[in-house]
Specification:
By secondary structure, this protein is mainly α. Helices cover 81% and strands 0% of the residues. It contains nine helices and no strands. Helix 1 packs antiparallel against helix 2, helix 3 runs antiparallel to helix 4 and helix 8 runs antiparallel to helix 9. The termini are far apart.
């Protein structure tokens, strides 16, 4: 417990440092501190869990490594940084998606949540369209265009799976997973706006804050167990 408190204090100190440097427009230190926030949370997870979940571990590792690549961006070709970095994020989201859906009953979900599935599908298509419309002028019909599609699809699948998981289980663990996924999607949407529309300090602050909040929810749920599902008659 003491070790966990130390890690939490360290994360808070790094976050405060990020906020200070971000609003002082010190991009170098803001980016550096931002990049180590989530790896610190990942370290705390592995210290607290003697038997970590495989897919959640893969999510944390890939996400953290991609974040840390900011420290080598000046030493490698941009193409490597872009494709490897985004490839790791895609793997991370895919692993989290698998973790969420692997214990769901698809038959039960299809029978009981038909309307939800239709609405979620329409919402995902709309969000994916908006995000692609923002990045289109910058990537065109190149390989980067398809990377962006894969990135957005993997992220939105996590949100969809987490909501269905919450509807299916309706417990605290599934609620935290959904809140984490919702936070990370909002973070990604604002991140696109920051990167391609307007690089305001406030936007990047919100991106990092929402991502940190998402990882807080994910970390908290990792210490909980799913309650027994009380299935309704179909």
């Amino acid at each position: 417990m003491n070790k966990l408190k130390v890690m939490v204090s360290l994360v808070l100190l790094v976050y405060i440092g990020f906020v200070i440097f971000q609003f002082r427009s010190n991009e170098f230190w803001a980016n550096a501190l931002d990049a180590i926030l989530l790896p610190l949370i990942s370290i705390a997870y592995f210290k607290e869990n003697k038997r970590p979940n495989l897919y959640f571990s893969l999510f944390l590792i890939c996400y953290s490594v991609s974040d840390l690549m900011i420290f080598i961006v000046d030493f490698i070709p941009y193409a490597y940084f872009y494709y490897v970095g985004n490839g790791l994020y895609i793997i991370a989201y895919t692993a989290l998606f698998i973790k969420i859906i692997k214990s769901l009953s698809f038959q039960y979900i299809i029978l009981n949540f038909k309307f939800h599935l239709v609405v979620l599908t329409a919402l995902n298509i709309y969000i994916a369209y908006v995000l692609q419309d923002i990045v289109n002028p910058y990537v065109g019909m190149t390989n980067e265009y398809f990377v962006e599609i894969a990135y957005n699809v993997s992220m939105l699948l996590v949100l969809t799976a987490s909501l269905l998981n919450y509807l299916y289980r309706d417990d605290k663990k599934s609620l935290l997973i959904f809140l984490g996924s919702l936070s990370i999607v909002f973070s990604e949407v604002l991140g696109v706006a920051y990167m391609y529309v307007d690089q305001q300090n406030l936007l990047n602050f919100l991106v990092t804050t929402l991502t940190l909040l998402a990882f807080y929810f994910y970390f908290t749920q990792s210490n909980l167990k799913n309650e027994e599902v009380k299935q309704l008659a179909s």
